[in-house]
Specification:
CATH class of the largest domain: Mainly Beta
Distance between the termini: 69 Å
Number of strands: 14
CATH superfamily of the largest domain: Jelly Rolls
Helix content: 40-55%
Shape: elongated
Strand content: 25-35%
Length: 340
Amino acid sequence: MRTNTPDKDLVYHQDFPSIRQFRDLVEGFMRETGVQNQSGDRISWANNYENGTLSYRLLGDDIVLFYQDVEIMERQKICIHPHAGQQPHFLIKYIVDQNTDLTLDGHIRLSQGELFLCNSLWGHEVDIPGGYRGKILQVIFSQNFLTEFVPDTYVQHPDIYHVFRAADSKVILLPRIPLSLREHLQDICAILESTQPIRVSKIRLLQQFAKCVEDYFCYFLERREDDYEPLNDRLFRTKVLRFFRENLETDWMGLDILSAHLSISPSTLKRRFCKTFGSPPHSYFRYLQMQHAKELLHSKAHTVSEISVKMGFSSVSSFIRCFKKIHGHTPGASARRELI
């Protein structure tokens, strides 16, 4: 239901969305916004207050994924009312892209790239400023989904259990998420926002989202541990090497992504990195990458050109120069002579 406040802000009131009632919610939304076009599970609208598109996939009775691409002309407030006394369900919201921050409950700023989870006991308000443009992925899922797809290691963990059992309305917020999780979420967004049909089975989408949830809680618990244990030199080294080795077949990720993964500032990262490894982050990453490139060459499973593409180089010649700088000879010579 839409109302106007005395200062002319638009206010939307709705119950915490449930899976079984999602189609009813979409129909009500269509009536409120004046939907101009509907094609399968994709709708678009435009009015004096906002315009956008909504794409969704219902995966049985246990999960619904929906992706919104919106532009808001006038300031709005969305009031979500909790579902108390019913079988709990859960919401994950991922801010894919936006031109300005949202505000949650009057004081929590939601920035691009942030991810949070809550249960259906949580009533909340979201303030959306006028002129807002953004893309948001949201997923509602049931207790049955958790039981079938998410390991008990996470569901039963004391730092997470209270949310899954709807013991309170606490929000689990991740302001920075690892690159691997971001890529999984972007894959789901690409499927939902595509205007061309993408044939993806329901079970594959379920498994893909389950992997996102598992990565989400793994990273959340790692950050919790870091809150209680300072990032000492040994832990710093371990986390850097693990992250680098997971990304050797990609281009250099940049200081911002690496510092976000380690939850430290870029300036602190550069200082600690040189102290721990004896070289700047980019140089050490390239060193490990060229060691891996040599292993790939010796396996004879990839050509020099294929390896250069896998590692994100703009050209084969750039890859060869980097390889020679570190190993003292070209990749071709390394493959022929099998130098170690």
